[in-house]
Amino acid sequence: MQRSENIQVALRFRPLNVRETLRKDPEIWEISENSTYLKPSWSEKLQDSRKISNSKAYTYNYCFSSQETNEDVYTSTSRKVVEASLQGYNGTIIAYGQTGSGKTYTMMGSDGAELDSALNTSHSINDISIEKHEIPKAKGIVILALEDLLKLSKDNTNKSCYLSCSYLEIYNEQIFDLLADKEKITDTLILQEEKGQGFYIRGLSEHVLNSVSDVEKLIKKGEFNRHYAATAMNHHSSRSHTIFRVYVTSVSINKGSYDIGENITTESLLNFVDLAGAERVNSLQEAINPLETSVRFMASRSPRASPRLRSSSTRRSIDTFVNEGKHINVSLFYLCQVISKLSEKHQMPETHIPYRNSSLTKILSTSLGGNALTCIICTATSTLSQVELTLSTLRFGGIAGSIQNVVKANIHSDKTNELLLMYQKDIEELRQRLNAYENESKSVVVETEGIDATINTEGNDIRKILEERIKMITGILFSKKLSENEPQAKELWSEGAGDLIVDTKLVGSKKLNESLNTSADFAMTRMKEMHKEKDKQQQYIEELEQKIQYLTDSKNNLTNDLKKSLQICQTETAKRVSYKQQLTATEIQVEEKGKIINSVVENKDKEIQALKDRVNLVEKFSGLDKLNNDELERMERMYFHGLDMVKNTRFQMKYFKEIESLKSIIDKGSKNQENIMREL
Ligand SMILES: Nc1ncnc2c1ncn2[C@@H]1O[C@H](COP(=O)(O)OP(=O)(O)O)[C@@H](O)[C@H]1O
Ligand SMILES: [Mg+2]
């Protein structure tokens, strides 16, 4: 499940923009398969003008010309990273390049890029109008990846997949939540380290993704917040890094498809990183001395700005710029440093990787040299005017390509998950049974309705027969009366009355009554039977309803149990986090205490040394060891007194010498004076 993977590097040239076309800025780079090199004519010219020193070909995993689309780039570079996330592999896609080279276009699509350029030129949210631009709409890698993830998880019936996302911005080393509610957009988040698990961002909001429209809405919200915050805090969007994170959890209930068990949960994190413009990390000098560089850069970008910085607003904006520049230079510099150190690691495994120097490298620590499939897309411009910045990007990509990450899938098969899966399975089974019962009870209702209808029709038929018979009896009675009074009339009626009358005449009225009674009894029995059947069905329905009620209750109980286990899980996780925090606090305290103890021990050592010195001194005097404490102390006092005396004597001697020399000078002077006087 563990494998070594080199960071994949892709180079992408963007099409020329209107300004470059109008200026007739020539395209000087050519692509052949997965390499790029200067067109031969330009290679010579540039070497002559010493703009570049060599004309080698730069080779990457992929090279994309300006004709290739975001879909092409996504399919070749990122799809496999996205697919692997469903098996528990972390993944990171990074866009690196100078401002305006197409990083945001590649990551967030044409809308994101247009919003960026609109803000970078107008500085006002009101001026942003995506519709005004004529550039055809293109989806970015983030949307393409999520479309794929949603489709893959829908198609896979053996797995339940849960997707959620966060969107953050790093500006001046501070982290902002781009999906936070409006009033919290300007709050900064804290980056915290969890031992053995890298860094996590405290308070970063997470949002569930169920459809592509969810993704689009959240990206729009993030972009809007980014520009809103940029306006509110006077940020410049090309100087910030953004990271769109997707958390992928897949729960597999597919028996036997993995070697470690049947119920498997995989968790992975996908980072889509849109870095700030790389133009300010051209050289080590720039990164080390950002202030000078930023001012130089500012002066070169806006020739009208006075180098003397007369107005206070200009001073303010330059101060801000310097501050921003510093953070960008420093964070991108540290990114480059991390990448260059990582590229040396296979030769020097002990090399220290300075992840902790900036927020960006802390967040990306698991993606660079860690447990993630990583792909860096270097975006560049192929024009002559940008040759130096393009070369810097090409070199960066070259170094990054040699880094190896050791990736392994984040697979769990712990009891909690199994329990959750069991509950899920139970609920699913109960749901199916409930559906089956519901369907069955429906069919029973239909059946009883059928019986009711039968009872009705049969009842109607019996009623008809009875009515017929009543008619007949009336007829017989009538014909009897007639035959008693008018024999012809009897003949006439009997013709119309049909066989029954003849029959009646033959059998007599007693038999007829019997026959009628039997029919009525039969009808009644049938009716009773029907009603009994109906009652039985009714009872059956009631039983079913009870069963449904029981199942619904069981389902509710299970759901409650599930909720409770989830709550327990959450409380346990919260407890774990708080224990960890306590542990960290205790570790800090222990460290502090250790320092104090060390310094106390040091002082004690010094004291012991002083005592030893004294003992040594005393031991030098033979016979002193026989003295008691008081005598020793007296001796010590005498010793120090003696020392003082020696010191004084030394001083006195010094003064005596000086007095002697002064005396001799005075003697000499007076002798000279005597001689002069004598000569006179
Ligand atoms: N491959 C591309 N095809 C078409 N237009 C592009 C492409 N790449 C960049 N652009 C355009 O170039 C401009 C700058 O791109 P953008 O992504 O904002 O640069 P970056 O994020 O590197 O500063 C935008 O107007 C964008 O629409
Ligand atoms: Mg951008």
TrEMBL record:
> Can you tell me which family this protein belongs to?
Belongs to the TRAFAC class myosin-kinesin ATPase superfamily. Kinesin family.
Q: Which domain of life is it from?
A: Eukaryota
The GO terms this record gives for MF are: ATP binding; microtubule binding; microtubule motor activity
Organism expressing this protein natively: Stentor coeruleus
Record-given protein name: Kinesin motor domain-containing protein
Keyword Coiled coil, does the record have it?
Answer: yes
List the InterPro entries.
Kinesin-like_fam, Kinesin_motor_dom, Kinesin_motor_dom_sf, P-loop_NTPase
* Pfam families per the UniProt record, alphabetical: Kinesin
Q: Where does ATP bind?
A: G97, Q98, T99, G100, S101, G102, K103, T104
Query: What region holds the Kinesin motor domain?
Result: 6-403
Coiled-coil ranges (or none): 413-447, 527-561
Q: Which GO terms describe its cellular component?
A: microtubule
Swiss-Prot/TrEMBL GO biological process terms: microtubule-based movement; mitotic cell cycle
| Keywords, in A-Z order | ATP-binding, Coiled coil, Motor protein, Nucleotide-binding
